[in-house]
Amino acid sequence: MRTSTKIIRLFAVVPAALAGSFVAIIGLGFLPGAGMVAAFAGTLVVSLVLATGRWESPAARVFGFARGLRAGERATLAPTLALLEVLDLAPRRVLMRGTDTGGLVASPIGRRTVIVEPNVVQGLYERRLTREDAAAAIGYAVASQRVGPARFDLAARLWAFPWTLLYVVVRQIGRAFSWVPAAGFAWHLRAVVGVIVVVQGFQPGGDPVLGVATGVLVAISYIAPAADRAWRGVVERDADQIVVHAGLAGSLVHYAQWQLGPNSMERVQRIAAAAGQRKQARAQAEVLAPTRETGGLVLAHPTAHR
Description:
Layout: H1 3-27, H2 33-51, H3 56-63, E1 66-68, H4 71-86, E2 93-97, E3 106-109, E4 113-116, H5 118-125, H6 131-147, H7 153-176, H8 183-188, H9 190-201, H10 208-245, H11 249-260, H12 265-294
Parallel strand pairs: 2-4
Antiparallel strand pairs: 1-2, 3-4
């Protein structure tokens, strides 16, 4: 992986981990000092174990809010997974998302696990999705694992888990009260609320620690998503190339259009260009194949055609 890619990934992971630590400190504030130290020491030990690749299955279920596939779901996905096996894009483990997080329909987690959304299986079962379309979504997740630093993925998720849990809870509350006028607008004003809390924290009788913690969380709520989008953009380009070379360019275009809507134009153009290059390379290989077999020479100079 390129150094610039690692730096982008670092900026995507560190803010979420810091936010998770802040949330954990606030949530575990009732513990004595020794208890807090023990909790963080235990987290450090578990993160080191996860970095070695152990406990991936249970950790993926917890951090991904996922469960194992049921018999019917596994049977529905079987043709898709068989195709991915042929294309060398099959995941080692597939889990089913238990709650909607608003992310990708197939998300990589850890080194060998992919979590699929229920609507993928439902679409396959109801024949609204083809085997190739589902293969493009899951294959893209596997390709992302090959591009990104999957080794420390679960360890990073462990430190960010309190923040992720808080984000999911806030998201569900927001959906429950989406009918309230200006509810979405209030979320966009969180920067103003953060500034007010920070200022009040340093007023007489205020709590500076709470003010600073709130300000940091509000800042991270902007920084972490921006860094994550930048990281996903880097991974997206390389992962798209892998899926295109596997022969799923058309389905990948459909997936991008369905996932991003009008915002997918640049990505679709990039996929189409990569597919065209692949087609030209295959055509050239087919032309040169007979020559290589016979050991003959092909003159490329214009005079060779006279």
